[in-house]
Amino acid sequence: MKQKFNIITSTCIPLPLENVDTDQIIPARFLKATTRDEKFFGDNLFRDWRYNPDGSLNKDFVLNNPTYSGQILVAGKNFGSGSSREHAAWAIAGYGFRVVVSSFFADIHKNNELNNFVLPVVVSEAFLKELFDSIYADPKTEVEVNLPEQTITNKATGKSEKFEINAYKKHCLMNGLDDIDFLVENKDKIEAYEKARN
C-alpha cells in the first residue's frame, strides 16, 4: 500500500530467529495466487508457523500472542534469504508492518520491501539484542523510526542508531511514490532533457 513515511513510533513484534527465508515468510504454494490483495498475503504471512496442519492457530507463534503487537517486526540476522519472490514483501506489507528491523537483510528481499513501502532498518547486532531484551522485558516498549533523520531509537533505553538508505528510495518512501509515480512526477524534466538532446 502506498503510504507516505516520515516518523513511526510503535510497539514491536519480536521474531528472534536467524536465516528466516522467503519460503517461511510466504510458502511457495501461495505464489500461484492470481490476486495482489494485501489481506490475502497478509493473512498468510508465516503461514506454516502461524497455523497447525489442521488449520487451527498455533498459539505458540508470536503473531498469535496478544501480548505483542505493532507496526514494527524485529527479526534475527539474515532476514529474507532464499528465493527472490516479491510475494514475501507483499505479505509483510499486507499484514500491516511498516518497518522490519534486523542486523542483516538479503539484498533482493531488502529492495522488495522498499518497493512495497516497508522500511528495512539495518542495526548493529548489539542494538538488535538490546531491542529484543527491552521488548521481552516490557512488550509495551516503543521504538521510534525517523526516516528523515535516518535514526532508530529504543525508547526504553534512549539509545539510537543511524541507518543507511538509498537517497532515491528515501525520497520515494517519504512522498508515497513508486517507481512509475516518480517518473510521472518528473515527466517535464525528462521531456526537457529529451528536447535538449535533439
TrEMBL record:
Enzyme class: lyase
Biological pathway: Amino-acid biosynthesis; L-leucine biosynthesis; L-leucine from 3-methyl-2-oxobutanoate: step 2/4
Molecular function GO terms recorded: 3-isopropylmalate dehydratase activity
Domain of life: Bacteria
Gene Ontology BP terms: L-leucine biosynthetic process
Any one Gene Ontology cellular component term annotated for this protein: 3-isopropylmalate dehydratase complex
Family: Belongs to the LeuD family. LeuD type 1 subfamily.
UniProt-recorded name of the protein: 3-isopropylmalate dehydratase small subunit
Gene giving rise to this polypeptide: leuD
